């Protein structure tokens, strides 16, 4: 039996999604809780491996099990055995050919900036604080140069293991709600640190430190050293993974928090 789960988590306490030796991870905690419910060892496959400190509201995973359990055991039962910063949002039995990573056709992230002269207290782990005056309209305009299938070498981490730097960006939207600037980006897939590297450069444009055409220039240069530093991890959320409609996975609200779909 193959089960798919929708998972959300506060990544601030973890060294990323992926299970690792000697440090805690979201995958390790979720596998531990699932294995307890299944009374057998469970290994997960995920749609996207988020980095240390990065959050998820729309992570999708799957696992195989011989255990016969009602679906609520894989949601409510698992949640009762998870730390309070990880939660299963839904569970669904899927066909054997479903794969959380390889069946996905797109991923979507949101990066939340708290743009205020003073740092936040309550949401300090869920947003990234930038105190300069950010022009989100300039960021949005500049970001449109990223659309389509392009070589994203300038926004690729040195340790990225992908065989190709080409990705197809479906949309990039930069909006503001009060003191919060939201960068919403979707693509067929992302390179290592690609979203945070893009946001880091967009912030430089929003602060007026670089011209509007800088994103296009960086794409053409194909040189990571020419782009801005990587944006902080705390503001980034994996909010959605797209699959063919025929699979019939649930579609909860994207978030985080108050943000509309």
Automatic annotation (TrEMBL):
Residues 8-102, 142-244 form the Pseudouridine synthase I TruA alpha/beta domain. It catalyses: uridine(38/39/40) in tRNA = pseudouridine(38/39/40) in tRNA. It comes from the Bacteria. Keywords: Isomerase, tRNA processing. Its EC number is 5.4.99.12. The active site is at residue 51. Substrate binds at residue 109. GO terms for molecular function: RNA binding; tRNA pseudouridine(38-40) synthase activity. One of its GO terms (biological process) is tRNA pseudouridine synthesis. Homodimer. Formation of pseudouridine at positions 38, 39 and 40 in the anticodon stem and loop of transfer RNAs. PANTHER family: PSEUDOURIDYLATE SYNTHASE, TRNA PSEUDOURIDINE SYNTHASE-LIKE 1. Belongs to the tRNA pseudouridine synthase TruA family. This is tRNA pseudouridine synthase A.
